Amino acid sequence: RYQAASFAAIEARGVPAELRQPVKVVRDFAEKLPLHLAAGEGLVLRGPVGTMKTTLAVAVLQYGLQLGERAMFLTMPSLIDSIFSAKAVSSEDWLRFESRLRQVPLLVLDDLGAEWGSGYVMSKVDAIFSERYNRKRSTIVTTNLAGQSLQSRYPDRIIDRLRATA
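RESULT FIELD:
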């Protein structure tokens, strides 16, 4: 679906006036991507459905891939499903998958807040964000949740990690 998501394609399609500034900010981030990756800096793209969050996140990912960077894209529900599935198949697959999540230079997590939020799931999300923060790995997050909704749903540690790096 997102193979053609690029800044050129976004601009060719036309950017609504109310989204021009956010698109510029994200494009500026992408143009300095090697510096951001070295510093472990990412983005949090928040807003309602239909505001190009996922497309912009994937455009940054595509830009990074063109530069030869390694990157990974997952929706939050798919992330949780993949963790459970890999764990059920074999502990080796599970460890390999989690290792990739923690080490890939650029991770795009789409739809933060769409995952089921039980204790185990929340501890896995916390572990992933904490490990990426500690390893200075860049994470781009998209979410429909506003600030207060994010804070009421996620532990302060996750919010702190996002604020410190995005």
